[in-house]
């Protein structure tokens, strides 16, 4: 989004929505939280561990790597 790639962000959201619905329809919100925890440990930008992921057959990003985006050092806004 920062780079103005709104169409790419929309396509990614549309690709991930069915995965979220698949997880929540069978396991509810706790299942979605578990999937997020799983993603936090396996889904890496430069070196994803797709071979270890039970959701790889349903993941639109399975097997893909992405360039890391540098973090900005601007002012942080607290919640």
Kindly describe this structure:
It is a single chain. The chain is an all-alpha fold and 79 residues long. It is 47% helix and 0% strand. It has 1 helix and no strands. The two termini are 20 Å apart.
Average pLDDT rating: 80
Shape: globular
Q: Given the helix and strand composition, which structural class is it?
A: mainly alpha
Number of strands: 0
Share of helix, binned: 40-55%
- Enumerate the spans where pLDDT stays under 50 for 5 or more consecutive residues: none
Strand-and-helix sequence, N→C? H
Largest sheet properties:
none
Q: Count of helical segments?
A: 1
Rg over CA atoms: 15 Å
In terms of quaternary structure, what is this?
A: single chain
Strand percent estimate: under 5%
In angstroms, what separates the terminal alpha carbons? 20 Å
Describe the secondary-structure layout.
Blueprint: H1 6-42
């Amino acid at each position: 989004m920062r780079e103005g790639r709104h169409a790419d962000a929309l396509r990614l959201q549309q690709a991930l929505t069915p995965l979220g619905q698949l997880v929540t329809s069978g396991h509810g919100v706790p299942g979605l939280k578990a999937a997020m925890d799983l993603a936090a440990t396996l889904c890496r930008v430069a070196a994803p561990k797709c071979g270890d992921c039970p959701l790889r057959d349903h993941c639109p990003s399975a097997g893909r790597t992405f360039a890391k985006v540098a973090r900005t050092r601007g002012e942080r806004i607290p919640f």
